[in-house]
Amino acid sequence: MNGDARAAEAHQFQAEVAELLNLMVHSVYSETDVFLRELISNASDALDKVRYEAIARPEPLAGDDRLAIRLKPDAAAKTLTIADNGIGMDRQELIDNLGTVARSGTKAFLKGLKDAKEGLGLIGQFGVGFYSAFMVADRIEVTSRRAGGAETWVWTSAGGAGFDVAPASEEQARRVPRGTEIVLHLRTEAERYLQAFELERVIRTYSDHILFPIELVGDKDEARQVNAASALWQRAKSELKPDDYTQAYRTLAMAFDEPALTLHYKVEGRQAYAVLLFVPTTPPFDLADPARKGRVKLYVRRVYITDDADLLPAYLRFVRGVVDSEDLPLNLSREMLQNNPQVIQIRNGLASRVIGELESCAAKEPETWGKIWAAFGGVLKEGLYEDHERRGQLLALARFATTAGETPRSLRDYVASFKPNQTEIYYLVGEGAERLKANPKLEAARARGIEVLLLTDPIDAFWTMMPTEFDGKKLRSLSQGDVDFGELPLLDEAKAGDQAAAADEGAILTAVKEALGDKVAEVRASQRLTESAACLVAGDNGRDRELERLLARANRGSGAKPILELNMRHDLVKAVGSACGAGKDGEVADLAALLLDQAHILDGEVPPDPAAFAKRLNAFVVRGLTL
Ligand code: ADP
Ligand code: MG
Hints:
Structural class: alpha+beta
Strand content: 15-25%
Number of domains: 3
Bound molecules: adenosine-5'-diphosphate, magnesium ion
CATH superfamily of the largest domain: Heat shock protein 90, C-terminal domain
Strand order of the largest sheet: 1-6-5-4-7-3-2-8-9
């Protein structure tokens, strides 16, 4: 660094940061403790990074290899300093990292804060990172020097619209030879964070399991370690209490809820590793993120390596925690992790173990499993599509909304309440259980008391595409192919008798097909309908109607024509017969069009030509239908 002091440069915060700061400063959010958890976690990340870099290039650690986090309150100056001798930041990193938010889900989070009344409670859950320090400080100075770098830089901000970056004074540069020092000028309301016991309380609560020593520095510069700094996952299960696990979960996952499920074990033998995994209670914010990134941390002999080892399949990305290997080489590059045979072996073992744990939870604690499924079922179902090997296990774990009541049901429950002669599992895919319940395709099943699965997750249209069986019973869509309920008795046989089917079935079907031309692939008599006049279904080998609809929205539809099914007992269908018999071709055409349009509407679609539909309907109403 050259001796003459260069002037500070002013920078603007990215718009999202300014918005976040504004919320933070003006919030009445009372749980300000989180700021310390965030700063300590950043310091710990920085120490992890410098230790990782030092595996390949140990020079920057020379002379100062005791990695630690130090907290020093100064009652006179009303400042709290958090310092680490980690990786540090150069000038550009200070500008980029402390001026923007890169974190996925931030936009959605900010939107959620605005929309939700309880938004402020979400701040804690989300983990707002560095900026949360502005909840307790009205001015922040960050002095940092990149490990191996030659210059020390100082970032300062009083919140608001921006920050300054300037070269460090000689005194500052001497104080921070490597890593980062953050000085918080505490607001009056936050002065309790000057007290050692208060700091200790917060550290014990949120950061006890940080692997590096967290030291509290007193008036006379004497340092005292206040956290356990032990790798909890290396300890024996018998030594640990439920509360230890909860705290470890919160530190590792940066979460505030309780873990719904905890999995702690060690594998010995050819490959030795320790595993500590948690299933959260509340869905993490990035669950819907298209990157579908896992969050299981890989350690090698207590050294943090990466979050990116994809140790679990993407459909288990809600699981948080640590895998600590004894055998992997420390200098394994992140890129090489993908194909390393040892990592692949860990991956396989881990997925099986997690699924096994989910199975035992489902068997032994159905209530807990119900909650986990409600939170993560939509994600787990991706496995039905992706993980052929574990498909059967995942199907057994699945819970479905069905026509049989309000409680979600397993396929085992479903099969146990098969009707006499029932051999298949029926389902309907669509948007929203309520709308599905009103779908005419359910009529024939309902008339026979047959339970139908109501599949409403977007992923449902995809996994059901593949032939699926449970317990040797086929899953069958009620909106695809030819469903034959012939062998299954009606609940009320008398009712079936009072309405005879139209006598001239063949003539009606031919007439309607002729009138509709290639708008439909086929017109046939329905087994599904008992009350409604018509419905649209896909052919046996065609895609389910719901999937076709989803893909068509993305312009990826196959353009396959649906099959129109008619209820031969319905008056409107019989009217086609009469019109045919009387040679009224115009009326046949109008009736056929009306049947097709209402089938579209019953599927939740707009008729292809809404104006023509309205006109035709009006004409019929005004004229009156003479049957
Ligand atoms: P996150 O930790 O989720 O990335 P933060 O807002 O907590 O988000 O931090 C933003 C970034 O600032 C970090 O990703 C890191 O690059 C940098 N950073 C923050 N604190 C430190 C530190 N003590 N040492 C080095 N880099 C840091
Ligand atoms: Mg952070």
